[in-house]
Amino acid sequence: MSEARSVPEAPTTAHDLTAFQQNILTILAEEPMYGLAVKRELEAYYGSEVNHGRLYPNLDDLVEDGFIEKSELDKRTNQYALTDAGHDIVLGQLEWVLDRFVIDEARADEVRTLLEK
């Protein structure tokens, strides 16, 4: 008789994701992009080359976790877009940062109001 393996749960919050994955979600929060555009944004942020072997498995993981959607632009190009769950992850991370960073509570409330729109 074989032993049942437990399947790891999909991440549900930003702290369950790597910083690299969080950065991908943040980039896609602006607008849907194809893979190479995401790659360029990441390279600009990191100041160094991002290998395809790092980018595309992470994009696939985020698709599998339900944080981004992948659609076909043409036979060779996929486009990636943030899902509602991905949007919630990005907003949750921003709120966490604001809770720790913003000293002026009134200003923090203003920013939260803007994020909720």
From TrEMBL:
- InterPro entries referenced in this protein's UniProt entry, alphabetically: Tscrpt_reg_PadR_N, WH-like_DNA-bd_sf, WH_DNA-bd_sf
Name a Pfam family for this protein: PadR
Transcription regulator PadR N-terminal domain span: 24-88
- Enumerate the SUPFAM superfamilies for this protein: Winged helix' DNA-binding domain (SSF46785)
The record, for PANTHER family, names:
NEGATIVE TRANSCRIPTION REGULATOR PADR, TRANSCRIPTIONAL REGULATOR YQJI
Protein name, per record? Transcriptional regulator, PadR family
